[in-house]
Design goal:
8 helices, 37% helix, single chain
């Protein structure tokens, strides 16, 4: 369960406090998928940083699986983020010198040894799971290719596999189809939603793409610093 309760975010500036988010609340369970829309500058990326435990809220609480990451030490919150949250960005952020397989395995390199042992005990090694995910996203023939040899859509499919490798509770996507043509964007978004349903993650996508948002059962909009039900069909 993801619980966001009365969260606000204020940044200090030379001209005084700058309020970005006010009294944001949200509750999602495993298997839920939400799209968050809003104009540029409305705070969508800021909210994603808070949900991803990259920045603390100024007030309010955020818990995932009953745990508040901002009550942890810096080392513990880094481990929490690695184990519990998967990220897919507009720019795939793949390592250019690494193969598809190696890129998918990157999150496992900083994973706690005990967590790695648990995963291996429940379904093969991390490398086995990476190969399965690469096959699932349709890139088995590209497994040893480097990012420069891939199309934009293929790079995003690698990024999705990477986000899922540690079986996180929460998947956060920041404009995952923003750099793709409409046909490729439709393919990538369908794959993302299908894998989410199979793995029963909590999926949150921040997007300007109305067609992508329309595919989500939960649609929210950031307006005037508040998170509200989307007014558009």
């Amino acid at each position: 369960m993801l619980e966001v309760s009365h969260v606000s975010k204020v940044y200090p500036t030379p001209r005084g406090p700058l309020s970005i988010l006010e009294d944001v609340s949200l509750s999602l369970s495993p298997g839920d998928a939400a799209a968050i829309t809003g104009p540029s500058g409305s705070g969508k990326s800021t909210l994603l940083y808070l949900l991803g435990a990259l920045e603390p809220p100024t007030s309010g609480t955020i818990t995932l699986g009953g745990q508040n990451p901002f009550a942890l030490s810096p080392a513990e919150v880094a481990e929490f983020r690695n184990q519990q949250i998967g990220f897919v960005f507009q720019d795939h952020c793949l390592l250019p010198q690494c193969s598809v397989l190696e890129n998918v395995l990157v999150p496992t390199l900083v994973s706690h040894p005990a967590a790695s042992s648990d995963r291996q005990g429940s379904g093969g090694t991390d490398r086995d799971r990476a190969r399965q995910l690469i096959e699932r996203v349709g890139l088995s023939p590209r497994m040893e290719h480097r990012p420069a040899e891939l199309s934009g859509g293929e790079k995003q499919r690698v990024a999705i596999a990477r986000a899922l490798i540690l079986q996180p509770r929460l998947i956060l996507c920041d404009e995952p189809t923003g750099n793709l043509d409409p046909e490729t964007a439709s393919t990538v978004s369908a794959l993302l939603l299908e894998l989410h349903r199979q793995q029963q993650t909590i999926l949150i996508v921040v997007t300007h793409n109305a067609a992508l948002a329309a595919q989500f059962p939960v649609r929210l909009e950031l307006r005037a610093k508040h998170l509200l039900p989307c007014q558009h069909p």
